[in-house]
Amino acid sequence: MSRPLTRRQLLGAGGVAALGLGVSIGVPPLMNRLLPGGEPGKLLRSALPLPARYAAELPVPAVLKPVRSDAGADYYEITARRATARLLPGHDTEVWGYQGTFPGPTLESRSGRRTVVTHRSELPRPTAVHLHGGHTPHDSDGHPLDLVGSAAHHDMPGMGDMPGTAGAEGATVLPQRDYTYPMAQRAATLWYHDHTMGFTGPQVYRGLAGFHLVRDEEEAALGLPQGPHELPLMIADRSFAADGSFAYPGLPGGAPGVQDAYMNGVLGDVMLVNGAPWPLARVERTWYRLRLLNASNARRLRLALDPQPGGGGALVQIGSDGGLLERPLRHDAVDLAPAERCDVLVDFSRYPAGTRVRLRNRLGDGPTGEVMAFEVGSAAGDNGFRLPERLSSVERLDPAKAVNTRTFVFQKGKQHWTVNGQEYRPGRSIAAPRLGRIEVWRFVTDFHHPVHLHLDPFQVLGRAGGGPGANDAGWKDTVDVLPAQGVEVAVRFNDYAGRFLLHCHNLEHEDMAMMAEFTTTE
């Protein structure tokens, strides 16, 4: 049975070396570069006046209909292309969007029913599409070098010269790719986004992201709020140039990566929800389901309602990255690192009619401390929902049955970010877990890193020798690892042999080589 790491082991001299890694993180030199509130990254200020808050109505992404269906599958077609959107009043913004929208259209799948998505791209650069949270064979996982685009996209300036991009010459670019998702997984809030090697940060920033919701019979039996009472909320900070275009500190000539000043991550000063700045949603006095997604490149969120209703506990968590929890959990606030999701219920009948309830980010300052608002109407609007005491049966992975314990150190190198002291190199596998076997994986870091595993979710066992955090419940696929802290998770990979990815989901870190491959074997 594995033993949890203590804080002394993590911070003491040679603590990581004692784990057999041959490196020692000590007290991280980047700690003094965190912004107030513990934010990693650097704020990029917009060059135009920020829009008024709560003036825009909350948009809800359209649900994409399949182009055809048969007895075993639903088939979709999506094209990534440039389009013009009115994100800010008085200005047009060029977005790179799936179907030309930001966010992209929402896909809905049934657990156990295959979904096939044909992706094409008309963008200036190729794309790779990753279904984040999907239990997916490796050839549909969106490997960073399995690209969609034209033959001209083989010429990606600077790719071979950038630290962490060795091996990029192995990229394959096809005019279209069919991504097959078996959907052998529980109901959950997934999302799809670009995963192109060296360019994930700027391409997601320009709009390449959308929801993919999985539904099943267990979830349907709960009678959760649906229709207009179910709101997917994609939260993303962005900054804008004087002409209304997205501002991003990329490198000259379109090379991969980011300017040195923003290597720790890019923070925007405009909070977008479903592509609208600080929007307003008009709600009835009844239960709502909010599917919260942090789609920011680097910004962490601590979301809370203001004012809190009498008695607190306004955010009733029912699900995490990998679907339903066993029981509802009441929170005054929930933390979301980039790529994390939290499925919550809010009973707006706890507020008097006419109340404006703000969704705030307690880790933000000034404008970035506000996210959106809800205007509570006078209509009772009872949708008949009653909160159950139990939601689901969640299998527990027993760490005592682990066949292996592995440690992964996320650390800054001289020019790039590393995993176990190495920058990403396609084709180099750093672990070979066996399918169907439980393992304990330890993540150790010198900075804020939201660590994401492909293929299967995991369960958080503890942090720095203690138990899991307040927002670690249920099945997770992304976990926020804090500076000089260790997190232990139990994971079991199933069904699909092949190469998959482990990486930081701070997209600037990912683009600057903080990624590694592992190979699942029979």
TrEMBL record:
Record key words, sorted: Capsid protein, Metal-binding, Oxidoreductase, Virion
Gene3D superfamilies for this protein: Cupredoxins - blue copper proteins
GO molecular function: copper ion binding; oxidoreductase activity
InterPro entries on file: Cu-oxidase-like_N, Cu-oxidase_C, Cu-oxidase_fam, Cu_oxidase_Cu_BS, Cupredoxin, TAT_signal
PANTHER family in the record: BILIRUBIN OXIDASE (PTHR48267:SF1), CUPREDOXIN SUPERFAMILY PROTEIN (PTHR48267)
Transmembrane segments annotated in the record for this chain: none
Keyword Iron-sulfur: no
Known catalytic reactions: 4 Cu(+) + O2 + 4 H(+) = 4 Cu(2+) + 2 H2O
Keyword Cytoplasm applies: no
UniProt similarity note: Belongs to the multicopper oxidase family.
Segments for region (Disordered): 127-146
The enzyme's E.C. designation: 1.16.3.4
Protein name: Multicopper oxidase CueO
Family matches, as PROSITE patterns: MULTICOPPER_OXIDASE2 (PS00080), TAT (PS51318)
Subunit structure: Monomer.
Coiled coil (UniProt feature): none
Name of the gene this protein is made from: cotA
Record domain Plastocyanin-like: where: 83-143, 174-218, 410-521
Organism name: Kitasatospora phosalacinea
Lineage: Bacteria, Bacillati, Actinomycetota, Actinomycetes, Kitasatosporales
Entries under Pfam families matching the protein: Cu-oxidase_2 (PF07731), Cu-oxidase_3 (PF07732)
